[in-house]
Amino acid sequence: AQSVTQLDSQVPVFEEAPVELRCNYSSSVSVYLFWYVQYPNQGLQLLLKYLSGSTLVKGINGFEAEFNKSQTSFHLRKPSVHISDTAEYFCAVSANFGNEKLTFGTGTRLTIIP
Amino acid sequence: ETGVTQSPTHLIKTRGQQVTLRCSSQSGHNTVSWYQQALGQGPQFIFQYYREEENGRGNFPPRFSGLQFPNYSSELNVNALELDDSALYLCASSGTGGGYTFGSGTRLTVV
Fold first, then answer.
1. Among A82, B30, B73, B108, which has the highest number of CB atoms less than 10 A from its own CB?
2. Which residues of B touch A41 (CB under 8 A)?
3. Distance separating alpha carbons of residues A90 and A4, to the nearest angstrom
4. Taking CB atoms and an 8 Å cutoff, what residues of chain B touch A104?
């Protein structure tokens, strides 16, 4: 079984400041890790994914995440945020890439302050 | 290449009624998964269909059922609706190349 913990339910950040959204996971098997973004009244959009290889993963909209196996973490970062980054962010884990369920965290609401 | 489309976008039902939600998979995708996202929560896995067969189920009662059709589109049926069934229902499709593509969801309100 897998589980995901997103440590911060809300993160307010000033525009153009850096941000880190934290995610820790638990799994008894090798995992695939994902970050999704959800804008108001919309579905989920994939930001980035870790499947294997380099532990630093780059995604869309200037986001990146680092997989840390020893700390079972997959934190999301962006060096300079914009107003348009205001959204809900979900970390998710899966035991397979496409054929197994995704287990999501409870989400982090990122609010950008002008 | 079309994405995942869900219908309807919103609907309101009365407690005890039945509802059917629909999902058209992304072209080339043969696996469909359904998720329930309650307000302020992360999505919860309901079940998955692969080649018209249920291929995994989450912790949801039997009144949640589904179908997948030969064209890989899918339905989610919920019987005997309860107030707690009010949520955003998300459909995701995936194919042999891996990865999940989500639709925009159906917002169900049970009154």
1. B108
2. 107
3. 10
4. 42-44
Residue that has been written with the tokens 């018209």 in this structure: B52
Residue type, A62: G
Q: Is A113 on the interface with B (CB under 8 A)?
A: no
Check: CB of residue A22 under 8 Å from CB of residue A86.
no
Residues A36, B16: Cα–Cα separation, whole Å: 34
Q: Does A46 touch chain B (CB under 8 A)?
A: yes
**Residue B73 phi, psi (nearest 5):** -70, 170
> pLDDT tens digits, residue range A54-91?
899 999 999 999 999 999 999 999 999 999 999 999 99
Beta strands in chain B (DSSP E): 5-7, 10-13, 19-24, 31-37, 44-50, 53-57, 64-68, 74-78, 87-94, 101-102, 106-110
